[in-house]
Amino acid sequence: MTAPTLQLENSARVHARLRDWLKEQFEFESDKDQCLIDSLDGISDFKEFAAALAREAKHEEAMAKACEGLIKDMQDRKARREAKAQRLRAAVAWAMQDAKETRVDAPDLTLSVREGKETLIFDRDPTPEDAARGLAKAKVVCSWDREAVSEAIVNGNNEAALIAHYEPATPVLTIRTR
Fold first, then answer.
1. Higher confidence at residue 108 or residue 174?
2. Could you tell me the sign of the dihedral formed by the alpha carbons of 68, 74, 78, 83, in that order?
3. pTM score, two decimals?
């Protein structure tokens, strides 16, 4: 755990102890008693601390989203640069062939051009008939049926229990901004 989360954990424990102490000392019957709530707010910084960490979480999420945008922009920029490099290479290869030069020596590099190999391009997707003729490989793709596995587990099917299990639910924090 990081220091702020340890501080929050400590603050929560102190807050809970203060609530218990106030309820015992002043005989509050409900955690919803406004006097108890006001007293706790006056002597505990838990709510402010939790709110501050929630604000920090929102800030970190926004920064992650900004990074995502930057990454997308950089990936686009990378793709444009790679495409430009391919166009420049193609132009140099064409020019060398047109000039009937197979080799160019420069102080920092050497260029050479030769005939490439043919590329096999498929014009359609394979069919089961193509696989039967030995021209394609057949693949079987399986995916889990979540509803069927869930129902089997609930009904006590041991085989399904070897396939999947339920994780305990974790608390969900919702942060709404105004």
1. 108
2. positive
3. 0.59
Structure tokens given for 5: 């989360």
Nearest CA-CA partner of 50 in 19, 15, 23, 22:
15
pLDDT in tens, 24-38: 999 888 888 899 999
Residue 140: both structure tokens together: 């079987």
Q: How many helices (H) and strands (E) does the chain have?
A: 6, 2
User: Which string of DSSP letters, residue by residue, matches 6-22?
Assistant: HHHHHHHHHHHHHHHHH
Q: Six-digit token pair at 91? A: 């132009």
Give the up-direction half-sphere exposure of residue 125: CA atoms within 13 A in the CB hemisphere.
3
Q: How many CA atoms lie within 13 A of 11 on its CB side?
A: 19
Tell me the C-alpha distance between 96 and 6, whole Å: 67
pLDDT for position 71: 97
Q: What are phi and psi of 148, to 5 degrees?
A: -65, -45
